[in-house]
Amino acid sequence: MQEKYTGGDIVIQACADDEQVAFHAVRNLVRKARNTVTMKWSQSGFAAIGDRMSTPRNLFGFKDGTANVTKEKDFDKVIWTDSDDWMKGGTYMAVRRIQMFLETWDRTNLQEQENTFGRYKESGAPFGKKDEFDEVDLDLLPVDSHVRLAKEVNKPIYRRSYSYSDGIVEKTGQFDTGLLFLAFQRNPDSFVKVQTNLGAQDKMNEYVTHIGSGLFACFAGVKKGEYLGQKLFE
C-alpha cells in the first residue's frame, strides 16, 4: 500500500456520462470546503460504454460485477445497514486502488487467464456452465481462482468498480493502469473476509498489486428539507 492513496476522512464519488460534469461537481464541493479540508488524492475512472443492462468489462477483458444482486429485496441483505442510529439506511464503501500489469497479462494465454478468474472470457460464465449468471459450482473452479476464493466465504458485496489510466510509469515505460475497486456492503466485515481470503492465495495477485485502500460510512438519502448526515450532526 502507498500512504498517499490510503485512508482519508471524507470521500466523494461523482458519476456522469460526461467526465467534465463529474470533475466540476467535485471541484465545486472542494472549493466550498477550501478552508476546512485538504485533498489527499483524486482519481478519474471509466466504465465500458454500451448496453447499460450488460456487465462492464475491466481492462483484462473480463466481466466485472457479475455476482451483484439486482433485486430490490436483496439490497437489504447485502447493501443497506440494519442500524437504528445515524447509519440507518446507509451503507459502507470499501475502496481499493489496484494497479494492473497489462503487459504481463497480455503475455498470458487464454486458458491461464480463464483459470485465474474461474470464468470463460467471452461469455462470463463460470467453468462448467453456459451463461454468465448460472450458479457457480466451486468444485469446477481452480482452487486459487479469483471467483472461487471470493465465493468461498459467502459474504456478498455490491461491486461498482471503474478502470483508470494514468499515462505511463516512468521507470518502466509501461502503462499505469488499474481498477478503482468500489464495494458497498451492510457491514465492513463482509469486505474484510472476502479480501482476506483473496489475499492469501488468489492467482490474480500475479497480475495486480493493491496500492491504495479506504473504508467510508455512507449516509442514507435525504428528504426535502433535510441535509446529508443530519442524524449524526444533530
Automatic annotation (TrEMBL):
It comes from the Bacteria. GO terms for cellular component: cytosol. GO terms for molecular function: heme binding; metal ion binding; peroxidase activity. PROSITE patterns: DYP_PEROXIDASE. The keyword Zinc does not apply. Coiled coil: none annotated. Residues 55-222 form the Dyp-type peroxidase C-terminal domain. InterPro entries: Dimeric_a/b-barrel (IPR011008), Dyp_perox_C (IPR048328), Dyp_perox_N (IPR048327), Dyp_peroxidase (IPR006314). Residues 2-46 form the Dyp-type peroxidase N-terminal domain. The keyword Signal applies. Pfam families: Dyp_perox_C, Dyp_perox_N. Keywords: Heme, Iron, Metal-binding, Oxidoreductase, Peroxidase, Signal. NCBIfam families: Dyp_perox_fam. Belongs to the DyP-type peroxidase family. This is Ferrous iron transport peroxidase EfeB. It comes from Streptococcus gordonii.
